[in-house]
């Protein structure tokens, strides 16, 4: 029961200190995001990658700072629970006119759960549900930048209005030929609209800030015509002469889902009212959950909060049970799922087979590397949680025994909160979007038989995608390590994505070698490796026997990706990356590009 009176002299001061801690965090977050524009204008690609990586750490640093202050100034951990109830009420009051209340509530949760032991904090002390609405938040100041701008062109002034739309972003680097690029975009738009009559409300609504990631900047908005709304995005790149070009025109939800994929790095974009940006983006991509949109905008902690709320809601309205995930079991990770929920849960085992020379901390470091790295649409993002409680009755007994056998240190079964119901508490786990394992996807095609034309097309498409995925990873300076089919998955839109990170390495840390010629007949006939192999040595020509046992798979792979079996391919790209080159990897179909000679299309 919350107190009816606020009588603690410390409660308001602590709440104000926590709001101040959050405001400092978001101010630094916005500042770093805004600097992305200058880095793009000056082609500081390494600085852009570094900033994207470092910004991820901002949140935990500010939570730690706030925790330290509260302990030092207020001895917060020793305060009675009724004071913490008052702190939360004061905090809610301080958020009434705040521009990022949902983020501030998550910050409060992060600080509070760090101070209070898990057995002491309950739902009364944290924001399990949002307390402050994010609807219709606006900055009333006349000088404030709005969330989006609206433009109202006619057929006669369409070109001029569109050029104004682009120029309003005030990029401090000249376009090679904005008039030409505008023509390309309007032609593409005309093809999309067809012969549709321009209605009274015809307009462009465009988010007021550019989205920056890697070497690109993106205009994001929608065309409104009558009852029709068409999402669009315009990638702006540097061409080989250092001038700006609009590289493509992307239309429709599917194109934007690719751009905002969970397998890509987070955008940098300066937002005063993030909930308004998320609401606008959801109008473009209604199939994309708010969790994933917050993640894509670099607000991963808010994404985690929303994911957990969605998960609890799903548990309430479902009855199926957690089980061992289907597929080949991993040597390092134990994976389970809930069939009705589109995610998998992964925990690190307590011990590994002898061939896996690794530790728990090394594996966690690999997952952190992926979180901070450019995932180029080919590595699944993960949500990391600690001390997660699940209802015991929702777990199959076989799964409990599997965890007891392989990861007993990560398992607790108890009634921690004293409500009379046993819980399965997992000490540390990762959560990933569920995909169809590539080996299962291929096996389904094999089972259909070689005479099935759909199966043949499925094999060809996915084997080409698999090779493209590896080449995109190479462009991002990532060697996947274990390249077996089972370590890749197929997404709902047919993309092949890598998701097993315990053996990944930087390309620049690997030594790509050819298998030496045998020096005598004994070595030639030997079934064992007779040459020396260093800890970072990789022999690409040896990939074939493990990957290409099926004749149809082998034929497709050799036709499109035989270079992946040649050490010189890897050596050449390692050398170029080591020299500081940053590859272009495009989050859209190459066929959509207006001028494919600008930039590099792929690594083949």
UniProtKB/TrEMBL annotation:
What does the entry list as the binding residues for ATP?
325-331, 346
Instruction: Kindly give the InterPro entries that the UniProt entry links to this protein.
Output: AceK_kinase, AceK_regulatory, Isocitrate_DH_AceK
Q: What is its EC number?
A: 2.7.11.5, 3.1.3.-
Q: Which residues carry out catalysis?
A: 381
Q: Which UniProt keywords apply?
A: ATP-binding, Cytoplasm, Glyoxylate bypass, Hydrolase, Kinase, Nucleotide-binding, Protein phosphatase, Serine/threonine-protein kinase, Transferase, Tricarboxylic acid cycle
Q: Name one GO cellular component term.
A: cytoplasm
Q: Where do the Isocitrate dehydrogenase kinase/phosphatase (AceK) kinase domain residues begin and end? A: 320-590
The protein's GO terms of the molecular function aspect are: [isocitrate dehydrogenase (NADP+)] kinase activity; ATP binding; phosphoprotein phosphatase activity; protein serine/threonine kinase activity
Q: Which reaction does it catalyse?
A: L-seryl-[isocitrate dehydrogenase] + ATP = O-phospho-L-seryl-[isocitrate dehydrogenase] + ADP + H(+)
- Isocitrate dehydrogenase kinase/phosphatase (AceK) regulatory domain residues: 15-318
* Compartment(s) where it occurs, according to its Swiss-Prot or TrEMBL record: Cytoplasm
Residue ranges annotated as coiled coil are none
Instruction: Please give the Pfam families that the UniProt record associates with this protein.
Output: AceK_kinase (PF06315), AceK_regulatory (PF20423)
Source organism superkingdom: Bacteria
Q: Which GO terms describe its biological process?
A: glucose metabolic process; glyoxylate cycle; tricarboxylic acid cycle
Q: Which family does it belong to?
A: Belongs to the AceK family.
Which purpose does this protein serve, as stated in its record?
Answer: Bifunctional enzyme which can phosphorylate or dephosphorylate isocitrate dehydrogenase (IDH) on a specific serine residue. This is a regulatory mechanism which enables bacteria to bypass the Krebs cycle via the glyoxylate shunt in response to the source of carbon. When bacteria are grown on glucose, IDH is fully active and unphosphorylated, but when grown on acetate or ethanol, the activity of IDH declines drastically concomitant with its phosphorylation.
The name of this protein is Isocitrate dehydrogenase kinase/phosphatase
Lineage here is: Bacteria, Pseudomonadati, Pseudomonadota, Betaproteobacteria, Burkholderiales
Gene name of this polypeptide: aceK
């Amino acid at each position: 029961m919350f107190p009816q009176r606020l009588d603690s002299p410390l409660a308001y001061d602590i709440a104000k200190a926590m709001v101040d801690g959050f405001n400092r965090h978001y101010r630094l977050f916005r500042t770093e995001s805004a600097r992305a524009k200058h880095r793009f204008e000056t082609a500081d690609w390494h600085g852009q990658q570094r900033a994207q990586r470092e910004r991820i750490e901002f949140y935990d640093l500010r939570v730690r700072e706030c925790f330290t202050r509260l302990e030092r100034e207020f001895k917060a951990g020793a305060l009675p629970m009724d004071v913490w109830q008052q702190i939360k009420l004061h905090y809610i009051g301080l958020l009434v006119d705040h521009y990022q209340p949902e983020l501030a509530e998550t910050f409060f949760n992060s600080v509070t759960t760090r101070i209070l032991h898990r057995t002491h904090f309950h739902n009364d002390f944290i924001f399990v549900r949002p307390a402050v609405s994010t609807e219709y938040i606006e900055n009333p100041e006349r000088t404030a930048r709005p969330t989006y701008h609206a433009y109202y062109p006619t057929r006669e002034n369409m070109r001029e209005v569109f050029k104004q739309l682009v120029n309003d972003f005030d990029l401090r680097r000249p376009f090679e030929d904005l008039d030409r690029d505008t023509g390309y975009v309007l032609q593409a738009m005309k093809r999309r609209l067809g012969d549709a009559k321009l209605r009274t409300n015809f307009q462009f609504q465009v988010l007021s800030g550019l989205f920056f990631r890697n070497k690109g900047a993106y205009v994001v908005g929608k065309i409104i015509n009558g009852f029709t709304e068409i999402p669009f995005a315009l990638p702006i790149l540097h061409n080989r002469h250092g001038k700006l070009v609009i590289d493509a025109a992307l239309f429709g939800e599917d194109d934007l889902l690719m751009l905002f994929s969970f397998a890509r790095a987070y955008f940098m974009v300066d937002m005063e009212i993030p909930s308004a940006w998320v609401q606008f983006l959801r109008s473009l991509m209604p199939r994309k959950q708010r969790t994933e949109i917050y993640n894509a905008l670099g607000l991963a902690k808010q994404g985690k909060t929303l994911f957990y709320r969605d998960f609890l809601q799903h548990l309430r309205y479902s009855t199926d049970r957690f089980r061992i995930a289907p597929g080949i079991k991993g040597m390092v990770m134990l994976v389970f799922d809930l069939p009705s929920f589109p995610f998998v849960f992964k925990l690190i085992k307590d011990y590994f087979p002898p061939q896996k020379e690794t530790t728990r901390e090394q594996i966690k470091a690999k997952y952190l590397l992926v979180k901070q790295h450019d995932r180029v649409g080919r590595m699944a993002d993960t949500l990391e949680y600690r001390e997660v409680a699940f209802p015991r009755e929702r777990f199959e007994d076989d799964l409990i025994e599997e965890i007891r056998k392989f990861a007993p240190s990560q398992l607790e079964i108890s009634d921690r909160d004293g409500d009379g119901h046993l819980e399965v508490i997992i000490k540390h786990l990762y959560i990933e979007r569920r995909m169809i394992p590539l080996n299962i996807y291929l096996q389904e095609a094999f089972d259909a038989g070689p005479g099935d034309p759909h199966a043949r097309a499925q094999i060809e498409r996915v084997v080409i995608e698999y090779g493209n995925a590896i080449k995109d990873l190479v462009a991002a300076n990532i060697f996947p390590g274990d390249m077996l089919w089972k370590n890749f998955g197929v997404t709902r839109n047919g993309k092949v994505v890598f998701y097993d990170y315990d053996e990944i390495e930087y390309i620049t840390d690997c030594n790509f070698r050819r298998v030496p010629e045998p020096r005598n007949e004994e070595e030639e006939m030997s079934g064992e490796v007779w040459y020396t192999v260093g800890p970072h040595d990789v022999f690409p020509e040896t990939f074939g026997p493990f990957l290409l046992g099926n004749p149809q798979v082998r034929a497709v792979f050799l036709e499109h990706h035989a270079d992946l079996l040649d050490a010189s391919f890897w050596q050449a790209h390692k050398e170029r990356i080591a020299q500081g080159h940053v590859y272009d990897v495009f989050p859209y179909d190459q066929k959509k590009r207006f001028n494919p000679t600008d930039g590099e299309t792929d690594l083949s």
